[in-house]
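Final report, Chapter 2: Outcomes

The project's central promise was a pipeline that accepts a single protein chain and returns its three-dimensional structure in a standardized token representation, suitable for archiving and comparison. That pipeline is now operational. To close this chapter, we reproduce one record exactly as it appears in the project archive, with the input sequence first and the structure output second.
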Amino acid sequence: MQGESGLKRIFKRLLGNSPEKKTQRKKRGQAAPLPAPAIAQVEVTTRCNFKCTMCPRTYSSGEKNLDFSWDLFERFSAFFSKLRLVHLQGWGEPLLHPRIFDMAALVRQKNAQVAFTTNGSLLDERAIAEILHLPMQHVTVSIAGAEASVHDAIRVGSDLDALMGRVSNLVAARKRKGLKEPVVHLSYMVTRASVSGLPEMVRKACEIGVDRLVAPNLDCPVTQAEDDLRIFGFEKPDKAHQNAIEEAQIVANKRKFRLNVYPLTLSDDVIICELNPLEQFFVNVHGDVAPCAYASVMGRSDYCRYFLGEKVPTSPLVFGSLAEESMDSVWYGEQYRRFRRQYHNRMHAYRNVAAGRTDIRNMFELDAYFREIDKALSENPVPGFCLKCYKACGA
């Protein structure tokens, strides 16, 4: 087409001469400093009014009714001005914390964005008024199926019809006030039981006016039964599951609606997981700082996750406590820096290979390029804690 082959256009897109690529080539071999933090996820409570079948809390024997200390949160807030977003979410229902909206207001006072994820059961008139008054930037509501028989069986204690009504009330109240925030998301967990209902949930989401539907995988199964419900893996996805997702995307496209479905095919060459521990961190209800929520589950040392049918014992990975030191001290501590440096080196090795190969002319050279990337990633593996974690494989 116009003197340029399709293959050449692909090579240029992958390895072309953009200003960014030129800069990468100039800096090839130079290790950049570790990035500054951008997002904090804070577990404001471990209390919850549901017993979801996929949640570690349901199977935990302790630490189910703890709240994040207000005094500790105030001390932590000195760090918020350095962040872009504070996400109030952990292994509990945030709206059960008696000072959740004071926490959100404090985040806003520090000029950071604030978000939270909820099971939606407590989105009453008062909560909606508080959310709109702040306003919060993002509200995500968790869904597990398009039919009550599926959703209610997984999110035990929930009522799908009532839940969708509350979400509709939030969107309608925002519209009446002429506000653009919060952006309202539905998080639709994709499993063998729910995937066929995804197109219908897209239709429902459009009808009530939510802004976006995200369809994550069941990426942290804590029982064999839950692991059996996942529909992703290293093998080719089931055709029926793929068809349901494609239908949902068609429905979304026709309505110009934002739908994001997580991949069904895992990969062992993911550079860094979606949670990006280079810039994000998790603070549990005690104030312990971990790379992500999966690294500190209910304070349990006996926590196990499942990976491709294998039971994987997983001890907490924390790098300090805000009860004893500042967030700056934790973030820039040697152990935490060493952990992040592994991901940083992995990313740097990949970029070195990508920046140095702009002259690929055929499929043989492209294959050699991919082998170089495989070698760079194998020489710079993810931290040991992240092995046998679905998120590290792109789930």
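Archive annotation: Residues 1-22 have pLDDT under 50 and may be disordered.
This record, like all others produced under the grant, will remain available to the consortium after the project formally closes.
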